[in-house]
UniProtKB/TrEMBL annotation:
Domain Succinylglutamate desuccinylase/Aspartoacylase catalytic, first and last residues per copy: 64-250
Pfam hit, one: AstE_AspA_cat
GO molecular function per UniProt: hydrolase activity, acting on carbon-nitrogen (but not peptide) bonds, in linear amides; hydrolase activity, acting on ester bonds; metal ion binding
Protein name: N-alpha-acetyl-L-2,4-diaminobutyrate deacetylase
């Protein structure tokens, strides 16, 4: 672990971030604090947006490894903020060898509003990386993560869910990478996290995601999609907690007890979305009729959804078909669909 935060540093020649932290990065023990993001508004001329952060570090025999756990990147995905808030309270310094940075709500304005994008600036945080020092609130948070936090850690777990517009079979995921050694490190971590489904994904749109800056720095990156529909369940929260603890165990920052070890958990199902045929995209506007439930197997060419014309009762619905055989691992949640919406995601089994 690079304690000096002098490794990958795309902003090394620039001024320091405008965001500041109330925690002491050199102190051992457990600290609860904030990132202070300048925000001058009509309500508060010299105000700031405060991002809660917990830093736990103890270096027993050596520097140990370092991991950052984040949730609330999108404000309508609640498993991460709940699970990481619990972990921030429960994890003790004496249980740690290394460094753990926990940010339950990376985008507090969005989490408070329960919206995907921030109500302060209309920015989707996970399309705003690497951020901007003099940008909006969201962009300044992204800049601080990229320039200051990322160099301090070896790996990042970003907890997501489907939010208000998608729902998923619970999964952890990673990307295809050209660097085979980095790909293998990510794959080993993905398997260790041991979500019910482990997905190697070719995303429709990855530009500006935190994923890219972490991977570009040569670090381990895994994210989750746990449930959806704009809510959280006891099961989805428990899965988020399990994924976070398995990440820490894998990096040997904590040690699993018998109940919490991967050997005591059901084995993950390795899956793949290798290309655009894995996605079902709407060309029409109207009422969405799902024809397949999440988790069901489909065959290539099988109808998986219909979109009904709201205005014309005589109009036949548009029928959407699976582009490949596999399992429906994700789908659109609202009952209304518009052209361009993702209606379904189909994953295939892989022996990786």
């Amino acid at each position: 672990m690079d304690m000096s935060a002098s490794g990958y540093h795309p902003y090394a020649d620039e001024l320091p971030p405008r965001v500041t932290a109330t925690v002491d990065w050199s102190a051992e023990g457990k600290q609860h604090g904030h990132l202070n993001v300048p925000y001058s508004s009509n309500e508060s001329a010299w105000g700031a947006v405060r991002v809660p952060i917990t830093l736990i570090q103890r270096f027993a025999d050596n520097l140990g490894n370092a991991v950052m756990l984040t949730g609330g990147n999108h404000g309508d995905e609640f498993e991460g903020p709940i699970a990481l808030s619990k972990l921030a309270r429960e994890l003790r310094p004496e249980d740690v060898n290394g460094r753990v940075i926990i940010i339950p709500a990376l985008n507090p304005p969005a989490v408070r509003a329960a919206t995907r994008v921030s109500p302060l600036d209309g920015v989707n945080m996970n399309r705003a990386f690497p951020g901007a020092r003099t940008g909006t609130v969201t962009q300044m948070i992204c800049h601080y993560v990229t320039s200051t936090l990322l160099p301090m850690v070896d790996g990042v777990l970003d907890l997501h869910a489907g939010g208000k517009t998608l729902s998923f079979e619970p999964l952890a995921a990673m990307h295809y990478l050209h660097d085979q050694r980095q790909f293998q490190r990510n794959l080993d971590t993905l398997k260790a996290i041991n979500a019910p489904h482990s997905l190697i994904i070719d995303e429709l749109d990855a530009e500006g995601e935190i994923d890219g800056v972490v991977e570009g720095a040569g670090k381990v990156f895994v994210f989750t999609e746990l449930g959806g529909g704009g809510t959280a369940t006891p099961n989805s929260i428990a899965l988020a907690e399990r994924c976070a603890r398995n990440m820490l165990n894998h990096f040997e920052i904590t040690q699993a007890d018998g109940h919490g070890s991967p050997a005591a958990q059901p084995r993950t199902r390795m899956m793949d979305t290798p290309d655009a045929n894995s996605y079902v995209i709407a060309d029409d506007n109207g009422l969405l009729e799902p024809l397949v439930d999440l988790g069901e197997q489909v065959e290539a060419g099988q109808p998986v959804a219909r979109i009904h014309n709201i205005e014309k009762t005589a109009a036949e619905p548009a029928v959407y078909h699976a582009g490949r055989s596999g399992m429906l691992i994700g789908r659109r949640w609202p009952g209304v669909a518009n052209s361009g919406d993702c209606l379904g995601v189909i994953a295939i089994d892989t022996d990786r």
